User: What shape does this take?
Amino acid sequence: MHRKANVILLLLAIAGLGVAAYVARPRASARASFDHYEHDFGQTKPGELLKHTFTLTNTGSAPLLIGRLGSTCDCSKVAATQSELAPGEVAAIEVALRVRDVGFSTGVSAFVYTNDPASPISVLKLAARTAPEFTMVPSSVDFGIVPYRSGRDIEFKVFTRLPAAPGVAVEDVVSPCPVRASWDSGNADWMMLRLSLSGTAAIGSLTGRLVISLPADPTGRDGEQGKVLTHEIRGRIRGPVRAEPSEVIVSADLAEPVTRVAITATNEASRVDARVLEITEGIRRLISARVILENGRTVLEIRPAAGAGDSKPERSERRRGAIRLAVSAGEECPLHIPVLWLPPQAEAGTPTRETAGVMHSAGE
Assistant: This one.
């Protein structure tokens, strides 16, 4: 009897070991693994078709079946090179995205459904931003305050997807010193624009404009291409004296056509001597200027020249120029004062004295 019971227990133990071995044996399953799960296209042109490929590998031990493909936006499409992957096999999942609106920033998720029991839905994320085909940051040029007899370079990052480098020029410059512009290094998304201020042989304000000519689009597609963009250029060269206001507007239409510019020392000098050296060609026949002493102050007095209100061609359009003075306040140096000439009736209504105020800060 004991012997029979021992035999039964032995058989049950053997059967139990077999069941345990069967249960412990891992079941074959598919496993979906991607080489990466996110991609950022960065800045792109409106309407451009963007494509990116994700690599899918079956790292499991059973065939991987690719079921439905989808996305969160109708602006994108998802496709797979095959629908079934053997263990170790690789497939490409391609996501195409088209963003049409300027100034649009988007994030799109693509979904890949598989028979991976651990992760039946794989999420792939894409991002894109659209902007004008040409964007300069910042949009204006200000050299700020530059010490006399020194220079300054400033750089701007220009975001562009144009087929060629835009033309660049500095125009209408009324400046104590030259301003030059040139393209520097960059990459496929942006270029570096460098503006150089050098040879500051005079003090005073500078004005002008940066002109950028975008290349035309040979396809005729609407967009930024073919346009001419302008950006204001400002700055000030600081020295032993300053002028207030640092820039002036003159017109025969002003109710009080005489403009007075106070010239004061920025150092410890108690006296400022000044004399007019030159009125530049563009405004030479339109204004007159003289230096006077007024209540112990050195003052530059500017007024329209006799006959400046006549309707002659050279007096019927806006003109920019400058008055250059020799000044001394413990140190001698040239002083440069930009002047904008407004022809008679150039503006609606009659200009007032406020019109001829400061166009640029003269502060230190």
Q: What stands out?
A: Residues 19-24, 346-364 have pLDDT under 50 and may be disordered.
